[in-house]
Amino acid sequence: MSVLGTDSVLAQLGVEPPYLLLDRIELDGDQARGVKLLSISEAFFAGHFPAQPIMPGVLQVEAMAQLATVAWRQDGTVSDYVVTQSVDKVKFRRPVVPGDLLSLEATLSDATSTTLTVAATARVGEEVTCEAQFTLATVADPAVDLAPRQLTAPRAAEVPVLQEGALDTEEIQSFIPHRFPFLLIDRVEGWHQPEEDGMPEMVAVKNLTATEANLVRHPSGRCWLSNCLQLEVAAQAGCAYALSRPEHRGKLAYFMSIEDCTFNRPLIPGDRMYIVMSLRTIRQRFGQAFGKVYVGEDLVSVTNVKFAFTE
User: Fold this and answer.
1) Confidence class for position 195, pLDDT limits 50, 70, 90
2) pLDDT, tens digit, for every residue of 34-60?
3) Other beta carbons less than 10 A from residue 70's beta carbon
4) 244-274 confidence digits (pLDDT tens)
């Protein structure tokens, strides 16, 4: 059993602050434990529900992924960049707030040279804050997978062109509480309500640029958007639509669960994300969003999230 401090965690992950989400790790075979102390000085607290700061749920999952990555690297067979390949059965139990000590536990299974299955739990004291199952994968050739494919990518034919319901950045901020540096959508192009009994559909845009505050940065100079943050991009897009509807104005929306999400590749500066979301409201207090993220003609990720409305 060994305990790793920040220097060792940095060396294993190659991730620079502010998205180093572990302070210490304890390793014991296929079991790993870690701690993250939450301070109000964290950059994400300034933009995520700033009037009532809470740790973004997706960053709890990202912390779990970082814990599992360090444990996976211990036998020396994994040297490439590691990304989250899929996320399933994530449940959020209670908020994590400044001053909390977040304890994480991860169990590793079905490890190969390129993939790993993880079951993880996060707690504050005796209370479970998040439970998750996910798969990690190595980027076999980072020189290819983290390199641009073309100068600018054409819009995918699958992304509809919508004419009604556009929102600029100021209008988005009038409906959702997120602010810089954790506002992750730049524009809502529009939405439409199908004539028949279908789910409303909307399209949002996120431009990923080199000065983006939320990029994962590697000492080599490579940088990318964490796949877990793709979930946050999709969720904010869905919330911008849902909370702009008359029946939900003045409310907040919180993550409840994430199911069956897959990621096809990391996103890098210069990528223009089109987020296509279909939404439905369940019993007035709950919602479900089904999303697809496109960069050019590539389907980058597929998401399925549930959230709760609260006053």
Assistant:
1) low
2) 999 999 999 899 998 888 899 999 999
3) 22
4) 877 777 888 877 888 889 998 889 999 999 9
Position 22: which residue type?
L
Identify the active-site residue in 48, 178, 218, 248.
218
DSSP 248: G
Question: Structure tokens of 167?
Answer: 């929102």
Q: Rg of the Cα trace of the chain?
A: 19
What structural domains and CATH numbers belong to the chain? 2-141 (3.10.129.10), 154-310 (3.10.129.10)
Which residues touch 24 (CB under 8 Å, ≥6 apart)? 3, 4, 5, 6, 9, 34, 35
**CB of 204 within 8 A of CB of 177?**
no
The 3-state DSSP composition of the chain as helix, strand, coil percent (nearest 5) reads 20, 40, 40
DSSP secondary structure letter of residue 245: S
What distance lies between CA 170 and its chain's CA centroid?
23
Which residues, at least 6 apart from 311, have a Cβ–Cβ distance to it below 8 Å? 250, 251, 252
Q: How far apart are CA 236 and CA 230, in angstroms?
A: 10
pLDDT at residue number 99: 97
Torsion of CA 180, 184, 186, 192, to 10 degrees: -140
Model confidence pLDDT, tens digit, residues 78-114: 766 788 888 988 999 999 999 999 999 999 998 887 8
Active site residue 192: no
